[in-house]
Amino acid sequence: xxxxxxxxxxxxxxxxxxxxxxxxxxxxxxxxxxxxxxxxxxxxxxxxxxxxxxxxxxxxxxxxxxxxxxxxxxxxxxxxxxxxxxxxxxxxxxxxxxxxxxxxxxxxxxxxxxxxxxxxxxxxxxxxxxxxxxxxxxxxxxxxxxxxxxxxxxxxxxxxxxxxxxxxxxxxxxxxxxxxxxxxxxxxxxxxxxxxxxxxxxxxxxxxxxxxxxxxxxxxxxxxxxxxxxxxxxxxxxxxxxxxxxxxxxxxxxxxxxxxxxxxxxxxxxxxxxxxxxxxxxxxxxxxxxxxxxxxxxxxxxxxxxxxxxxxxxxxxxxxxxxxxxxxxxxxxxxxxxxxxxxxxxxxxxxxxxx
Length: 355
Ligand SMILES: NC(=O)c1ccc[n+]([C@@H]2O[C@H](COP(=O)([O-])OP(=O)(O)OC[C@H]3O[C@@H](n4cnc5c(N)ncnc54)[C@H](O)[C@@H]3O)[C@@H](O)[C@H]2O)c1
Ligand SMILES: [Zn+2]
Description:
alpha/beta, Rossmann fold, Dehydroquinate synthase-like, alpha domain, 2 domains, 7-stranded mixed beta sheet, two-stranded antiparallel sheet, globular, binds nicotinamide-adenine-dinucleotide, binds zinc ion
């Protein structure tokens, strides 16, 4: 069995789930298994692991509707009722099979059930493989605010298998690429061959195992060093201060953006702000070029900037009333900047000039 990369005692395995999962299960002693999936991942992904699970212990599968709007307390309540009906005890295992919505919510439900049962993450989107499933952040949206309720709890294991990407819609696949490029920017790997292969990829597909192994190791290294986000883990927020505001602003329009598209705009704008404060983000021009190649990004109108700033003032990453961005100034080295409304305006003008 491949050794996996560890965060505390939690391994992250990259490879064939059909081989890795049975071996890992045999080293454990679970009484039963509860599989949480959504309609899509149940239909398209479950067959890759169903036999391994059923040969190991009694399995209870629960399927919910897909979508961020389901990541809330009402759905948790349904999941906990189903766990009760299934008779789960503290030696049961929860298997979260899906994108970030399933992983975040299933992890949270597992962490709270009987004060915590073990769970594994089997991410099926590129975004979840490279980001959401790793690092132990679990949670749900509450009162219209994203990820307000949650806990940090490391999964018992994470299994990353690119086989699931075969059925992922193209726009979802591209959405995850922004996080992969973010990891490459943070670790100074933007000019590496594997990043070029990702950006150039056509239907034949790049070497996903290499891309995922590289990208995941950037996140695991950072989480291991700073699990509670007191320092270097903040670097993973690159592009997300402006990006989250962009994502929220476009959410209720006729053209909502994916998370990756919004973060792409955020990374271009924030890198430009850094530069105007004499902080050079390594390979910033290459990063912008790659992002503009992957995504068909919208122009940002003047009226939108006002809304963006109002949202950024609410950002939970702010400190002492300042709007903050975090950017790399060298591989795995971070600068934190307080930014002003005029920084935002200038960066949007710069971004629009590239579109
Ligand atoms: N915990 C963290 O550290 C962290 C980090 C980043 C994002 N997130 C969270 O992740 C969520 C977004 O995750 P996401 O982008 O994976 O979205 P998602 O879970 O909603 O999945 C996107 C869509 O793809 C479908 N799908 C998933 N896998 C598929 C497959 N293999 N084939 C076909 N369809 C498939 C899903 O059913 C869904 O419709 C957000 O809620 C965000 O807050 C969490
Ligand atoms: Zn993100």
